[in-house]
Amino acid sequence: MMDWLKTYALPFKDYVCDTTTYLTQAIKAGKSVMFEAQLGALRDIDFGIYPYTSSSSTIAGYATVGAGIPGQKLDCVIGIMKAYSTCVGEGPFTCEMFGHEAEELREAGGEYGAATGRPRRVGGFDVVASKYGILMQGATDIALTKLDVLSYLDKIPVCVAYQVDGKLTSDFPTGVDLVNAKPVYEYFDGWKSDISGARRWEDLPENAQKYVKYIEKATGARIKYVSVGADRDSYVQLY
Predict the structure, then answer these.
(1) Is 195 helix (H, G, I), strand (E, B) or coil?
(2) 76-237, CATH topology level
(3) What's the pTM?
């Protein structure tokens, strides 16, 4: 065990410190502090789809607590959403696609686990779940990713509401209601062209612009970035 620790732990020794003191001093010095989250709001142990959650809090409000500076406030929260839906693991997934339709989207987006290679569950963009995630995260801006993946579609499905026991709802349900929820879809015209070279809003086809603006209006969150490829510079900044 000691040999293992010397190999894998000692390289990090000089970076171990009192994070409360370190970060507080950085903030007092006017430095910017950025936190990167793992997993989305629905995997949060308190506000997620328990028991299909992580064992800890994954929402932005916990960032300062976990870092040891609970008295500090976040002044910018960038929520990251794909232009369609994916899910890893078990649990309710209202807008899940199946069969050939799911296979096409999974292949187009390369939706396989990075470590395990396990196929991810996929579906159309979910307005109901996304609105809930934005609310829980307190997102001030949104980065909409993988818009280019949808370029092969003639019609793009968007889950605009849920049907629960015969009633329509735009509020994210919990418990049995979530398990029984059925998706209500609207379909948007695709753009059927390669958008990976777009770097300005004007470079995007009209139907791609309409799709982005619909999501922005439906979720009530400002979309600041739209990614159109895997490269670092493959994105459009709207604001």
Answers:
(1) coil
(2) Adenylosuccinate Synthetase; Chain A, domain 3 (3.90.170)
(3) 0.90
